[in-house]
Structure formats: C-alpha cells, structure tokens
Amino acid sequence: MKIGIVCYPTFGGSGVVATELGKALAKADHKIHFITYSQPTRLDFFNENLFYHEVDIRSYPLFEYPPYELALASKMVDVVKYEKLDLLHVHYAIPHASAAYMAKQILKTEGINIPIVTTLHGTDITLVGKDPSYAPVVTFSINESDGVTAVSDDLKKDTYQHFKILKDIAVIPNFIDLERFKKQKKEHFKKAICPNNEKLIVHTSNFRKVKRVDDVVRIFNKMRQHVPAKLLLVGDGPERSNIEALCRELGTCDDIRFLGKLEAVEEVLSVADLFIMPSEKESFGLAALEAMACEVPVISTNAGGLPELNINGKTGFLSKVGDIDDMTKNALHILNDSNLHTFKHNALARAKEFDITNIMPMYEDFYRDILKAQ
Ligand code: GMT
After folding, report:
1. Which of 28, 154, 204, 244 could form a disulfide with 234 if both were Cys (CB 3.0 to 4.6 A apart)?
2. What is the pLDDT of residues 258-288, one digit of tens each?
3. Distance (Å, rounded) from C-alpha 144 to C-alpha 129?
4. Could you tell me if the CB of 204 is within 6 A of ligand 1?
5. 19 lines ligand 1 (CB under 6 A)
6. Which residues make beta-bridge pairs with 231?
7. Region 306-328: what's the mean pLDDT?
8. How confident is the model at residue 11 (pLDDT cuts 50, 70, 90)?
9. Where residue 118 falls among pLDDT bands split at 50, 70, 90?
10. Three-state DSSP string of the chain
11. Do residues 55 and 35 touch, judged by C-beta distance below 8 A?
C-alpha cells in the first residue's frame, strides 16, 4: 500500500508511535510518505520505502497565527495526488483530522477518493480536544474519518463519553520495537551514577503539568530515607524549572540528575531499577512500556489506560493519582532485593505482548478493511 502518515514530528508519544509504525510498514514493503512540518525525530536514515514531505508554512504580517492547518491540507492534497496514495493515516486529532477532512473534500472535486484513518492518542481527547474551543471540530472530524483507532480501551471509552461519536472506534495499543528497547550492558554507566550501588530510579516525560513530575521528586525524597537511591529525570518541558526549585527546597539535588531530551533513552533504562509514572492522565503510557521492555518495573497511577499496561502486583503497582505515600510504599517493596528480580522478569514478559511485530499487522488489517469498504 501507499500510505501517507501525518503526525507531530517531535519527541511526543504520538509522533514516536507514528514514526515507528511507518518504519515497520516500510520494512513490510509498503511505501510510506510522512507529511510533517519537520523531519520526525526517529526518521534520520535512508530507506527506499520511506519518503518525507515538509509542510511549507508561509507567514505574512497580517497573520498573528500562521494558518498551519491550511498549509497541511494543501500539502496532503499535493502528496495524495502526485504520489497516488491509497490512504492517509493521521495521528493526533488536532488539527490533523480536520486538515485531512479538508484535503479529502478538495480531492473529491477532482474525482479522487482518499480514505482517512484517524488515530486518537490521548490529550487530543482528554485535555485539549474536549475544550469547547476545539470540541465541535474534533467531533466532526472524527465522525467524518473513514476509520478511527484509539490506543487503549480507556481512551475509546473517554472519546464516547466526551463527544457525540457515531463511528466505531477500534483499539490498537501502543507497541515497542524489542530489537531496540532491550536491556543492554551499560554497567560503566551505572557505576558512574551509582558509585555505591544505590538503586537507580528513572522518569521520562515532557515535563507538562499532567505528568506530575513533582510527585516523582516527592516519592524519591521519601524513598531515599529507607534505601540509598539516585534519580534520573529524562526530558524537558514547561515544569522543569519548578521541579529544579522543588529539588532545592527538599535538599535532594545531589541525588537527582536532569538529563534533558535524550534520543537513546534505552541506554538509561538499561541500568534502571524502577520507573515512576505518576501521571494525572495517560491514555496508554508509552514511556512506561519502553521501561518495561528494558526490564524495569513501573510505579504508576491507575489513570487512563495505565491499568491496561501495568499489572498491579506483577509488573509494578498502581496507585491513586497523588497518593505519594502509597507509591513510596510500593516502590520500596519492588526495590527489596528479594522481589526485584521477579518484577523485572514480569515487566519484560508483559512488554513482549506489545511487540511491534504483533501490533503492526493490526494496522495493516485495519487499512485493508477500510480500503475494501470504499
Ligand atoms: O504524553 C504526552 O503528553 C504526549 C502525548 C502525545 O500525543 O504525543 O502522548 C499521548 O500519546 C502516547 C502515544 O499514543 C501515549 O502513550 C500517551 O499515554 C499519551 N499521553 C497522554 O494521554 C497524556
């Protein structure tokens, strides 16, 4: 198939899923055309089946906000027409689903039918999408898509709850490439960070409020009163300076390192003993899956789709949002040397269920069904 993929090309989970899906489809001999405003982060190599089309966003003094959606729709029209695409797959509803709708209508006037698949990733529904400033357009463009998928049962449920959706939503979970995300021998790295054999705790996120990174620091602060430990914070975002201030206030700075955005996050995960994800909302929790694939158990909240990934008492533990005491207690239980090995083993076994080789064919089948229905 010739498939156009539209996504945010940055470090966010939806962009990672879209890019990894495109790479896997290209490996299976489909022709994949990425349509984005810059080169997707994980698409920095050559493959004969992968193509990249940059959206040109023209500015003009009149525009306080350059109309990205129009530039994107125009690019979609161009690529569908000249590359003779079979289908467009847009990741994250805002504004990709409505731009795709516009492109579809334009192409229709030229006698071209292009089916649209929209994948809902999380905040496009739970945070941004349901805001009245976007909700009518999000509802309309989901209903007008030819196929809709969500990354967890919980996100599907939320979508039906918040919007008047008349379409079936298929659940296709996030996935992981186990050839890349696996425990590597990085003992020198562990020794450098934990010279006295401290336990290593890791959190990765975009440091937005919804991730509750301050809870990570508070849990860590309580834990280290019982077990020697170090914390690595990977990623960057709007809350970073508040978190630094909190570390200073709690006097934990010597044991916490901010690593910023990292491409090879699997190297850090390879030496971690525990991953903490205290999110207020999380449709799936791709970062937790990446940790589990590297044999790292997960302390998380029970928000959103997290219970569909992290199995309470097996691969880690689930707590209520904000319950720092419970998450601390659970973290100490996992880090106990008599438990740690079993949790690590279970985390990897669970991650294997989300291997890309199991999930990618679900998208292929979904595309075929949509094309058949045209
Ligand atoms: O977590 C974020 O803020 C990034 C966001 C995105 O759209 O890039 O992630 C969402 O999509 C990921 C991939 O499907 C999911 O694994 C994340 O759970 C989801 N984030 C939220 O729901 C908060």
Report:
1. 204
2. 999 998 999 999 999 999 999 999 999 999 9
3. 16
4. no
5. no
6. 201, 256
7. 98
8. low
9. very high
10. CEEEEECCCCCCHHHHHHHHHHHHHHHCCCEEEEEECCCCCCCCCCCCCEEEEECCCCCCCCCCCCCHHHHHHHHHHHHHHHHCCCEEEEECHHHHHHHHHHHHHHHHCCCCCCCEEEEECCHHHHCCCCCCCCHHHHHHHHHHCCEEEECCHHHHHHHHHHCCCCCCEEECCCCECCCCCCCCCCHHHHHHHCCCCCEEEEEECCCCHHHCHHHHHHHHHHHCCCCCEEEEEECCCCCHHHHHHHHHHHCCHHHEEEEECCCCHHHHHCCCCEEEECCCCCCCCHHHHHHHHCCCCEEEECCCCHHHCCCECCCEEEECCCCHHHHHHHHHHHHCHHHHHHHHHHHHHHHHCCEHHHHHHHHHHHHHHHHHCC
11. yes
Dump pLDDT digits (tens) for 85-97: 999 999 999 999 9
* Mutation probe of ligand 1 site: the residue of 36, 96, 121, 204 with most atoms within 8 A of C-beta: 121
Q: Which two tokens stand for residue 276?
A: 């903490």
The one-letter amino acid at 127: L
* Residue to probe by mutation, ligand 1, list 20, 118, 286, 302, most atoms within 8 Å of CB: 286
Cα 142 to ligand 1 centroid, rounded to whole Å = 18
Q: Which ipTM value was assigned to this complex?
A: 0.94
Q: Is 275 in the pocket of ligand 1 (CB under 6 A)?
A: no
Domains of the chain, with CATH numbers?
Answer: 2-175+355-372 (3.40.50.2000), 187-352 (3.40.50.2000)
> Which of 284, 302, 306 should be mutated for ligand 1, with most atoms under 8 A from CB?
284
- What distance in angstroms lies between residue 118's CA and the mean position of ligand 1's atoms? 15
pLDDT at 67 over 90: yes
